[in-house]
Design brief:
By secondary structure, the chain is mainly α. It has 12 helices and 2 strands, in the order αααααββααααααα. Helix 9 packs parallel to helix 12.
């Protein structure tokens, strides 16, 4: 499986044969998460450039994030893979003159942010880029609730806010951003619903207090804001300018919100 996906990337700078082979075997469920981790953390061959910790981490996270964007069915096992890296307390390996302590999932968050910002900027360029943004939002929501990195559900708040509290979006942009928001609701909605503004990092408080076109209530998260989001989703569902596919996703998100409000785990298919 995934031969064509890897073949299309074989000449990319971030693809090293010694890493691509175990990663493909892992995605294909041929080798276990533990075995894949053992092979993936080995230093590269340095066939083109000297191996360094930065190059190693860039290659690895780029592979993971590319798969997250284009192979959404692999999201659960990609989360397992990142978790396995962090649990390798014995893994302090040399990469050139550098050493990596894999238990911190080093540079995961930095590379995630770079990828997130690029996808957000490019999401209107083509249907393919739009789908990558939506898929990456789903993966990010899973990561944010898995306790495997410093990635926070605040990013879900931002995604939902920017989609549902803006006005004047084109139908294409509205559909895309609503679908991305729905991923955060489906996979991290419970955590977002339980957000306490007092627990939000000082780093994000200004961003969280940003005013928007449609929300007239208090800044930050609130149950009232959650209810407003649900009403906005209902409006999108009734709109004649969005596709039936978008409406189906909206209905799933609304159903998940109702379940979360009732104290139940949302059923994600």
């Amino acid at each position: 499986m995934y031969e064509e996906w890897f073949k299309a990337r074989e000449h990319e700078q971030y693809v090293e044969a010694t890493e691509a082979a175990p990663f493909q075997a892992f995605l294909s469920r041929i080798i276990s998460t533990e075995e894949a981790t053992k092979q993936l953390i080995l230093p590269g061959s340095a066939s083109t450039k000297p191996e360094t910790a930065s190059r190693k981490l860039w290659r690895l996270w780029t592979l993971v994030f590319d798969a997250a964007q284009e192979l959404p069915e692999t999201h659960p096992i990609l989360v397992d893979l990142v978790r396995e890296f962090r649990e390798r307390a014995d893994a302090h390996l040399k990469y050139g003159s550098d050493t990596i302590d894999w238990t911190d999932a080093p540079k995961f968050d930095q590379n995630w942010r770079d990828t997130h910002d690029s996808l957000e900027a490019w999401r209107e360029n083509s249907p393919e880029e739009s789908q990558r943004w939506i898929n990456f939002s789903a993966f990010s929501a899973r990561v944010a609730t898995a306790n495997i990195s410093d990635l926070d559900t605040i990013w879900g708040f931002f995604t939902i806010r920017d989609a549902l509290e803006a006005e004047g979006q084109s139908p294409a942009l509205l559909s895309m951003d609503v679908c991305a928001s729905a991923q955060w609701i489906l996979y991290a909605g419970k955590a977002i619903y339980q957000t306490k503004n007092s627990h939000v990092s000082e780093h994000w408080k200004i961003d969280k207090s940003q005013k928007t076109a449609l929300w007239k209530g208090e800044p930050g998260f609130s149950r009232q804001r959650w209810a407003f989001w649900k009403e906005r989703l209902h409006q999108v569902e009734l709109s004649t300018s969005v596709s039936e596919e978008t409406k189906t996703i909206v209905r799933k998100a609304t159903k998940a919100m109702n379940a979360i409000e009732a104290g139940k785990a949302p059923h994600v298919v």
